[in-house]
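Complex record, three chains
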Amino acid sequence: MRRRPVPAVVTALAVVLGVTVAAVHGQPLSGEYKIGVLEPLTGPLAGEGKRHLEGYEIVRDMINERGGVMGKKLVFAVVDAPDPTAAASEANRLITREGVKIITGTFSSRLCGAASEAAARHNVVYWETSCVDPRFNKRGLRTVFRTEIDATGFGWYNIEFIAKHLAPRFNIKVNALKIAFLSEDSSYGQGVTESARQRAKAEFGMQEVAAEYYSFTSINDFTPIITKFKQLNPDVVHHIGYTNDAPLFWRQAREQTFLFKALVHAGATGYGSPDFGRALGGDANGVFALLEPGPGFRLEALRPDGQKLEGEFREAVQKRTGSYPLGGHQLAGGGLWLLKVVLDRAKSDDLDKFRDAVMSLDLPIGSVINGWGVKFGEDGQNANARVQHYMLQWQNGQLVTVWPEEFTTNRAKWIPLGAWDGRK
Amino acid sequence: MDPARRLGRAQIDVFAQLGVSTILLGGIYALIAVGLTLIFGIMRVVNFAHGEFLMLGMYAAFWAFHLWGLDPYVVLFVSIPLFFGIGFLTYVLVMRGVIHASHNVQIFTTVGLSIALQNVALVLWTGDFRTVRPWHSSVVIRVLGTAFNLSQVVAFAIALALTLILFAFMKWTHTGRVMRATAQDHDAATLMGIDTDRVYRVTFAIGIACVGAAGALVSPLYAVYPTAGLQFVLLAYVVVVLGGLGDMVGAMLGSLIVAAVEVVGSYVFGVAWKEVFYFALFIAVLVFRPAGLFGQRGAETLGV
Amino acid sequence: MASLPPGRRAAVGLLGAAALLPLVVRDAFVLDSLILILMWGALSAAWNVAGGYAGQVSLGHAAFFGIGAYATALTTARFQQSPWLGMVLGVALSVAAGGVIGYLSNRLRGPYFALSTIAFSQVLLIATSRWRGFTAGSEGIPVPFRPGLATLGLGHVAWVYMALVVAALYYAVQVWLERSRLGYQLAGVREDEDAAEALGIASRRLKIYAITLSAAMTSVGGTLWAQYVGFVDPFYVFSIDLSIRFALNTIIGGIGTALGPFLGSMLITSLETYLRATFSGVKTGFAGIYLVIYGTALVLVVRFAPEGLIGLAARFAAAWRVRADA
């Protein structure tokens, strides 16, 4: 018999394909309720993705200690989504192979867009806990919800802090305050910075002296920027930095004696990451970062149920990771807890009942993990005002909560920053 | 008038600081490019995994610092032979089989290697960003109003030394001559009795030793994480093409030029367009003088 | 069909099987995998036109993919027009870009050419991510989903057929190239450009034709991808990883053959999906293992079977024939 090589190869491949695809599935056991968790676990975002997953797992265990959701044990089908194609594919797989009705995730804006589209086409709930793309809720999709505020909220809070807390203490009128914007150019950096710029100008009339973006993967020297900024002499530097560039900028600013009154950042990466403190030690003193509550956070400022919850959460994170909750833990954990609250109320994952339950929630600040409250809008977005964010400051190698003052025992120091060597 | 444009003391300070920045940055780029130009020049292999060896060099310095408190400059002395060995092994296990294969095969071999190495690092050491903070990383030297970071200065000095040593090696030692001969004409070299396989082994090993050393030297300056090599490798290619394949001095000068373009371009137009500047430079070189500013004319049409 | 050579028969068989699958299987994950296999296969075939048939190994094809993706995203999201219009615009822009790249890199060979293509794609990436006013910068653009063929808002089954049509078309283009005069001339240019020139072949012009054709085909693929996945961001659509993927599928399958890109896509895409599904949930520490396997597999395949799967198949066939005749 004559052999046909190509058809044979092709048939073999087709069989392999069929088998591999068929082999990829998982069935939930009875007594378990499975949801999908979609995070980047490989690729450039892997570090944060892993933290988010940790946060999810910790709160899942807390939930299960309390009886789980809808009377069943909460379990996860975890998938890795390093890029948008994978995000959409894996979302599909979660829905068709793992049979989930709710997917949560996703940390990065580029992933949440694609994944939520895929979920929407199957009418599966997409419970976003951290991506901050402002357009996420503006697509008219009934299935997407977001527990965290979007990037515009971060910018909003930052400017709030600068205008209401810092400017008076500098003895400068808000509309005479000179502010320089610097940012890494990912969707996160652009989102936060643009909304901050907007509010700074439109609402407070601050003087914007510069707005520079750079690529955080390739920036290796801030000298040109620092040299330029020195001449422009801003009062405040609004810098959204990532893990590598934040310490680099701070170090070079110090080297080149670039003096300014404050630096403000937002988010759990860059200045808001423990890596910053590790990289710079005591030299990190003074930087402000908008985050979830850190050390110094007054549990007493929360409502009683919130206190208990937050205390438990902190203990669990401490036990598992040896540190206080980091941004990733807080966003994921806080978001997952809110999901449980919704499911408790809806008692079902049917889309309409779910939506009704979501819309009916109305808890004040201080009620749940992170000291959040909750009130969703029709577009599925948790209100800015309920997702309290806090300003933290690096003091002696630690990020401590300094604002709003009623929530913390600590106070902001070094306002204005003064000489580089004077900040002890 | 725009303060940036007024001449005077302030302006001189600006030039001085930018100049210092250029030189120090150029030194770092040279360190990375030197190994690449050697491999590219003599073996005609596009090593896409070059950045990953840099990353491994950085991790080596990190773990030595973290576990045993060793300063990166001490680790350097271990890194060089260590990465020489790693380069040797990589050649024997991976590159030897494809040295005479088509470009595609070589490109994709090194791409596969790059993916594998990045993810081995991710699996073993997680995606967390690590830092190496020896005492000298925050020491600043001030000369006449300009600031030099000590770690950067040392990196530059060592880069310069390394380049000169390699240059001397290539020009005046027997092995160096043999390597250059093989680069110029592989077949003639074989006919002359040169063991080209040995030449390639040594070349690759030296190239990787250089970039591994570079890793130790830049570890106090930049964060260490599995994809840390990516940001440097493209830039290294621009330097290498600019300077001419296999040309040590070209690599050094090319590094300075690229650094200058970056720094000045960033200052004048804003940092957002930084990469565009050197890519534009790259394209311009490729179009008008592909052999590089210092390379042999017509080398690019040989393509190899 | 009996008169078709075995490669063609296999291709017809495969495409036929793909066409029948949605009638039998409704599982969206399987269909999604099939759609991706066909799309990546088609994009790899597009790359093959320049890289395989003309010997222009480009590592910057994501430039054209990204242009096609952004063309449709902007046309539908910003200007509320039909994605088909976006597709046409994307093709026009890609052809122009391909022409520019082809012209500027015309004299470059081997690694120099590859590097120049990388530079172009990265310049596009940066420009797109900075041009916030028009492209929404780094934040990317969500592509609106409006059901209907005119708006390319399709269900999974319809997407299978859409991808199939494109895949079949691109397969046919490659076959045409193999048998046409243009194809023979390109083969000459690929094998030995100087000799080809000496024989009077206008190699420089032909190389540009190959690149622009390849660019147009890639752009169409980018448009379809954007409509399917629904989100376009510059760091992905212009990424080097994507460029590498197109070339990779083709090389694994068999560079310069019509079926190669599709075979490669079948293997790589299913391998990737399977590995990611199996390993990513295990322990977060192990998340990268599937990529290590992927990278190592790539090194091995490229080393031991550089002609790709098709070449392997041919070698087995030859060995079998020897044994059968002995």
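Note: The radius of gyration of chain B is 20 Å.
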